[in-house]
Specification:
129 residues; alpha+beta; Beta-Lactamase; 3 helices
Amino acid sequence: MLLGALSPRISSLLEKVNDEYGFTMSLVCTDAGLLIASAGDGADEDQLAGLTSLFDDIVVRAQRDAGFDVIDEVALLDPNWGRCVVRPLPVSGEMGRLFLVVRVDARGTWRRATNTLRRSIVRLFEEAA
């Protein structure tokens, strides 16, 4: 099982990025919200993984109804809770599409960090194939 073997390595990458960029949590999950790897404050893992299915619905509707070709990111902001950023990973897992989800302070930045993290995760999948 490829995902099972990669989960600890992905979690380690997530931990490093959380420490470096101040994310309170990051995770990788399937389009159905199944958690693959995570790092940070685990209290909201289920909530963030659940948001991924919402993201998947937004992507499908944006492509179908608005004619968007590629959706690279969806971000939700609650000034008290922070920002939830969901980005698709350009790999397919055994259980469907995979997504990177990060929780960022309301005033935090994430784009450069998530770009780097996405490339590192893709590299892990390529090496394992």
